[in-house]
Specification:
Layout (H helix, E strand, L loop, with lengths): L11 E3 L17 E4 L6 E5 L14 H16 L8 E11 L8 E10 L3 E10 L5 E13 L9
Antiparallel strand pairs: 1-2, 2-3, 3-5, 4-7, 5-6, 6-7
Length: about 150
């Protein structure tokens, strides 16, 4: 790995598909790992395997968008926001370079948190290709109270 401007590696853990997701969910078919990155609100690595690349051998853009949305939403709904619900209301991605080697690391930074909305930035780097910056995204979320046991009734 390079000592360039990208995120630094951290301890890795296996990641379940997510709370409230059905067994056999599509996320289970992706090789995702939660990683700790200093200064980030949440980060995950995803392997670039034959199952996630297009005919040119590049990580499929829609799957990168899915990774970005997952990482941003998870960052937002952790900590003080546990139990709340977030819905992506806007997603803007700039694809900067092809992700061919992997793994790719998506790192989220919460830019703004309000009572009803939030904005998160996610940067994606191809760690196996000299940490090249392959995408950057800004997401806006509508946030509302969750419907957990404390909210029922």
């Amino acid at each position: 790995m390079s000592s360039g401007p990208g995120p630094e590696p951290g301890p890795e853990t296996e990641s379940p598909p997510g709370p409230g997701l059905a067994r056999g969910h599509a996320f289970e078919s992706l090789d995702l790992r939660t990683v700790e990155v200093a200064g980030a609100d949440w980060a995950m690595d995803m392997a670039v395997t034959p199952q996630v690349v297009n005919g040119s051998g590049v990580l499929q853009g829609g799957l990168m968008a899915t990774l970005i949305d997952l990482v941003a939403g998870t960052a937002l709904l952790r900590g003080e926001r546990v139990g709340q619900r977030g819905t992506t209301s806007e997603l803007h991605i700039s694809f900067l370079a092809a992700a061919r080697v992997g793994p790719v690391r998506a790192t989220a930074h919460i830019l703004r948190q309000g009572k009803r909305s939030a904005v998160v930035r996610v940067d994606v780097h191809d760690l196996g290709a000299q940490d090249i910056h392959v995408a950057t995204a800004t997401l806006t979320f509508a946030v509302r109270p969750g419907e957990g046991p404390a909210d029922a009734g």
